[in-house]
Amino acid sequence: MVKIYTKTGDHGQTRIIGKKIVDKNDPRVNAYGTVDELNSWIGFIISGLNDKTNVLYDELTEIQQLLFDAGTDLATLKGDTRHEYIFNNDGTATGWLEKKIDDYTAVAPQVQKFILPGGTQTASALHYARTVTRRAEREIVALQSLDDINPDVLIFINRLSDYFFAAARYANVLEKKEDILYRNSRPVFK
């Protein structure tokens, strides 16, 4: 039986791909850790899909697969001669997301204002996924300023946050729930 604990973490460190040991607050660990958090959150979203929103199941599962590849690349040093990047965007994954964004935007009512995150439970969870994706993007940019990364990962993550916004609005459409528009800070206290 393979043990899942290494005790390296007992000293605040972890081993990345290629066996290099880094601190657990290393920018590389922050980047792939946030991608892992996002992947787990998508699993939570999938577990709550219902008859109306289950049309999102296959694409959310595919996004999880892509995020696992992206996280693997973020945990891999560019100069590692034994491990190559596995996330190859070549426009395919990003193009797929862009088509989904366009499709969902065409179905949702047009708005000229910001909308508040929320609506149905699925839409709310997708909005939260958008914010975690944005945090992952910031972590990846911070890592990129210190070390080389697979640039395809950053492009995909950037587009993914737009996807989650569009998918959240689409989930509200599927469940016939209107988005709540931001009212520009005019309080309506009763």
Automatic annotation (TrEMBL):
Pathway: Cofactor biosynthesis; adenosylcobalamin biosynthesis; adenosylcobalamin from cob(II)yrinate a,c-diamide: step 2/7
EC number, UniProt record: 2.5.1.17
Annotated GO MF terms: ATP binding; corrinoid adenosyltransferase activity
Annotated coiled-coil segments of the chain: none
Domain Cobalamin adenosyltransferase-like, chain residue ranges per copy: 4-171
Enzymatic class: transferase
Catalysis performed (reactions): 2 cob(II)alamin + reduced [electron-transfer flavoprotein] + 2 ATP = 2 adenosylcob(III)alamin + 2 triphosphate + oxidized [electron-transfer flavoprotein] + 3 H(+); 2 cob(II)yrinate a,c diamide + reduced [electron-transfer flavoprotein] + 2 ATP = 2 adenosylcob(III)yrinate a,c-diamide + 2 triphosphate + oxidized [electron-transfer flavoprotein] + 3 H(+)
Keyword Transferase: yes
GO BP, sorted A to Z: cobalamin biosynthetic process
Pfam families reported for this sequence: Cob_adeno_trans
InterPro entries on file: CblAdoTrfase-like, CblAdoTrfase-like_sf, PduO-typ
The keyword Endoplasmic reticulum is annotated on this UniProt entry: no
Entry keywords, A to Z: ATP-binding, Cobalamin biosynthesis, Nucleotide-binding, Transferase
Family: Belongs to the Cob(I)alamin adenosyltransferase family.
PANTHER family named in the record: CORRINOID ADENOSYLTRANSFERASE, CORRINOID ADENOSYLTRANSFERASE MMAB
Quaternary structure note: Homotrimer.
Protein name: Corrinoid adenosyltransferase
